[in-house]
Amino acid sequence: MTGRLQDKVVVVTGAASRSEGVGTGKAMAILAAREGAKLVLVNRSAERGQTLKAEIEAEGGVAMSFAADVTQASDMQAMAEAAEARFGRIDVLCNNVGGSAGRSGSVSALAEADWHATLALNLTSAMLASKACLPAMQRAGGGSILNISSVVGVLGLMSHTGAAAYAAAKAGLLGLTLSLAADYAKDGIRANCIVVGTVYTPMVESQGTEARARRAAMVPLRREGLGWDVGWGMVYLASDEARWITGAMLPIDGGLLNVRDWPR
Ligand SMILES: NC(=O)c1ccc[n+]([C@@H]2O[C@H](COP(=O)([O-])OP(=O)(O)OC[C@H]3O[C@@H](n4cnc5c(N)ncnc54)[C@H](O)[C@@H]3O)[C@@H](O)[C@H]2O)c1
Q1: Count of structural domains, the chain
Q2: pTM
Q3: How far apart are CA 204 and CA 207, in angstroms?
Q4: Rounded mean pLDDT of 183-187?
Q5: Which of 61, 112, 251, 252 would staple 195 via disulfide (CB 3.0–4.6 Å)?
Q6: From the alpha carbon of 230, which atom of ligand 1 is closest?
């Protein structure tokens, strides 16, 4: 490792994957620690956060775990205060938590409460965490916010039914990213978005092998990605190598968004 994030204080929400596998949050946290960052692992489950902290420390990394619900403003406020109290600053915020809350469905089948819950989990959470961390970034003289969106927020997928709330929330993250980039450029704070494709993470591990094969086949590069693929994108966008990049949307999707077959 080459210290690409040396001494940066990096907050990752939903850092400790929902199972033993490596989700995007866990990959970001582990890679950032290996690159010299000090990690703030935000997770609803204190136990999973502690396990990841121990894993990072066993490799010689530095991390604190903070158990919190990202949908609660007071939790995000307390998290930012604890991070600054422990490490003295916040440089990077990765808004990684995401997924469907409640029952997903197309608009006619969707319960209003589930719509609100999914927006809260994916979109409001990113606003709340950003609002809590921005003052520390301003005090530090700059920072980097990274939102984790999805191809589902940019593409209408006919076979991917029932994702109305999730898709709307992930599309909303694109707008939030652009607003953050515009409003805080004057403070040296960058905001970018990773548009994640069909990566194999704990979020989708309940899908069978046939679904996995279909997910791989729809991608021009003909294989699923891994949490690590997203993690490396995060390392770059969070690092000073990306100091002139803000308001960008980086697809990490094996070409799904921008590369098409063209029958002739
Ligand atoms: N896997 C895919 O194919 C795919 C595709 C596109 C986008 N994504 C996005 O990638 C991200 C997936 O992240 P992951 O792989 O780390 O997921 P994950 O589900 O493995 O881990 C997320 C963690 O967040 C925690 N969490 C859930 N709700 C929380 C809350 N309210 N407050 C605090 N913590 C909470 C969970 O306990 C879990 O530990 C999501 O934003 C998802 O929308 C995934």
Answers
A1: 1
A2: 0.97
A3: 6
A4: 98
A5: 251
A6: 10
